[in-house]
Amino acid sequence: MDSPPTEGNRFPGIVRGAEPRAWLRSIAAASVLLAIFLAIPMISHGYLLQFGTDILEAVTLAYGWNLISGFTGYLSFGQVSFFGLGAYATALLVMQAHIPWYFAAGLGGIVGALVALVLGPIMLRLRGILFALGMLGLARILAVLFNNWRFAGGSIGLSLPAELTPVAVYVGMGLLALLGFGLSAFFVRSGFGLDVMSLNEDEEAAAAVGVPTTRVKVIAFMLSALLPAIAGGLVAWNRSYIDPTSAFDPTIDLQTVVAVMFGGIGTLWGPFLGSVVLMVAGEEFLVHFPNLELALYGIVVIATVLAFPGGLVGLADRFGWLRRPIILVPKTSAAAAPPSRAASRDTTAVLEVRDLTVRFGGLTALNRVSLSVRRGETLCIIGANGAGKTTLFNAVAGSIRPTSGEILYFGKPVTHVPTYRRAQRGMARSFQIPRLLPSLSVWENVVLASRHGRQSARAVEHAAWVLETMGLAAMWRDPASRLTPGYQRQLEFARVLALDPELVLLDEVMAGMTRDEQEAVRGVLRRLPEFGIAAVACVEHVIAAIADLCDTMVVLDFGRKIAEGTPATVLKDPAVVRAYLGEPL
After folding, report:
1. Helices in 240-341 by DSSP H: which ranges?
2. How far is CA 205 from its chain centroid?
3. Are the beta carbons of 180 and 268 closer than 8 angstroms?
4. Disulfide check for 486: which of 1, 72, 112, 222 has CB 3.0–4.6 Å away?
5. Closest Cα to residue 300, out of 262, 340, 345?
6. 92-119 pLDDT, tens per residue?
7. Of 527, 428, 419, 437, which Cα lies nearest the Cα of 480?
8. Element (H, E) at 564
9. Which residues touch 224 (CB under 8 Å, ≥6 apart)?
């Protein structure tokens, strides 16, 4: 591995310096915008007030979409479903239950959030284009449903009480846009927001460091549904009329997506900037170039996205403006002491695998494999490519569900325990190819694991200690994507240590490394007991680099265990020589 930079084991600039100033600038900008927002009703009660309401509606919808699609990466083409549900729920509550408008709009938002809670665990199993199409289908289904529901007015729609007070609608929409901004600010500065962003990077890797992925994305989905649902109720109030065509209009989603992409997806200020600039530009084009409005609008959007893929916020970032602050930055450069753990005399096996079988269709990847790792032991699993080594690790870590067999961790069955729970209980793994969270910083990669590990109560201090220990403190600000391969492997080790594990699963950690890098890894492996790690299981092809470090060696061949014992015995076994080595070692 690479040697650490000359700055050594210190966190340069770790005491909050630039971050507070950037946050104060954001607060100042928000205050100016709030002042403008409050001034508009005082100087106008006509066109300008309605245009301001429309802008605030666009901003609200943009922030709602950004919460699920920008931060988690689940691209939605059906957020208008919640807009329409909120509009109809609000209208029906006002007309049938005679509930005041503001309360009805709030209850309509809750209806949208509850629908997201019910659908989230199902819809969020999909990813990419499948989730996008699923949400688009939901919007179409709801449009057909309300089109044929006489109680809600059917295709004719509902005419609502003429209780229009434009200032009240404007204020309500402004407060809702402010709520959207506040939720986004929470996402970009909190530990929960770090969890959300980790899903966008690599959901499986996030689960491996203890992030409860389903819970996190369902909460984000609910919050993203709340905003458009309340906005729908306010729009219904503003228009005094609602029908399925306007409530579930797909162009609402299209305009929202374009605004967020134009401003900067997954950012705090992007939804606001994109919505305001495009709304104002569209209005100006309509006034001065009515016949070319859509063409000019499209040219502006395309030119900006092509020139600045990060949108307006990406452009500002080139000048050091509007950058996202690093999350959970420690207040001092002092790292905590290593975790202390009393020596245990427990002789229970840390890990037991009993008759584990994994089948993929007609292919048997593992066939009744059994093994155990006891406290203080290091187990090495070897075998040819395709022997089933990584499949075994994936089953033990919870990434795949075995067809049959049982996995015990400290004597307790974990065969059906989800991946994140195993990580939280002290089972940590590395991947064959490091699966870091590339756009997150070195610090955020480590503190993410620490806040879900067994040192969660002191996550920040523990993460600082891990970075010091692994020699990565000097590069704590750097995005993980900029690290060299050696440092990437080092960072993955740091993430494993941040969980404060008792069992470590290492998958070909020395693959593709130079001799010096292998020696650095060997040095870390020798130190693992110092960190309170009870047992180690590793998959490795570089046998010469691992043989003297392991107590027990297991050999797999076409999914079956063909040998087990000490390295000296196993590496001379005729069956092992014939199936894997070619000659004794």
Report:
1. 244-247, 250-263, 270-288, 293-307, 311-317
2. 10
3. no
4. 1
5. 262
6. 999 988 898 889 999 999 999 999 999 9
7. 437
8. strand 560-565
9. 64, 65, 66, 67, 68, 69, 76, 79, 82, 116
